[in-house]
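FW: tagging you since you asked about this chain on Friday. Here's the raw sequence from the shared folder, copied in full. Didn't touch anything.
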Amino acid sequence: MRTDNGAPRPQVVRALASVAVAKQAPARARTPAGRVRLTAARLAQEYPGTAAELCELDFSGPWQLLVATVLSAQTTDERVNSVTPALFSRYPAPEDLALADPADVEALIRPTGFFRVKAKNIVALAGAMCEHFDCQVPTRIEDLVTLPGVGRKTANVVRSVAFGLPGLPVDTHVGRLSRLLALSGQSGPEKVEADLGAALPSREWGALSLRMILHGRRVCIARRPRCAECVLAYFCPSAALPLRP
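HL: got it, structure written out here
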C-alpha cells in the first residue's frame, strides 16, 4: 500500500523493518528469554553500575528511598529530588513524619503533584512502620506492600536499590520496552516481572529494571523513539531503523 504521492505507507515501512530485524537478529534473540538476556547484556554495557548507582532518586538509606519512591508517582525524579531535602530536614525519621501535620507535608511536597494524597500516604506509612515494624523499613515484599501508598513496584525498588535484594520493578518504561522488544507476551506488571525474572539470575533483576528505565527515558522515548541510536535496535522487532549488531 502506498500514499497518494507514491511513498509506502508508514505501517508498511514498519512491517518491513520488523521483518528485516527478525532476519538479521542473532539466534539467541529469537526467543523471549533470549531477548531478555541480550537486552540485559547490551544495556549493562550502556549503563554500567549497580542498581543503587543507577537510581536517579537522591536518598540516604532505605527510609528516604521508600518515601522518595512513593513521591515519584506521576512525576519526575528531578521534581522529587527538589523537595526531599526540605522534607527530610523537617522530618528526618519515620517517627517524626508519623506525627506530622499533613498540611505542612502537603506544602513541602506540592511540586510533585497529587500532593494531598501523597502527604496522606507518607504520613500514614510512617505511622504503620512505627506501629508494625519498630520504625524500620521491612525487607519482605509481603510486608512492604502493607504500608499505605506502597505497591509491588515501590517494594521492588526498595528491595533492589536500598537493600541489594532481588527485586524487579516494572514501571511504565519497563512495561513499554518489554512489549516493543517482545520480551514478554503479558501486559500485567506482575506477569511481566515474572517473565523477565525467569530469564535472568535474581542478582541481575534490579539493575535490569533501572537500565530499562534509563533507556526508556533517554533513547526509547515513548513519543519519539531514537531507533538510530539504540543499541537494541538490531534485534528489536519494533525498530524503525534496524542497525547492524
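FW: The domain at 26-50+168-229 is CATH 1.10.1670.10 (Endonuclease Iii, domain 2).
HL: agreed, and The CA atoms of residues 128 and 134 lie 9 Å apart.
FW: great, closing this out.
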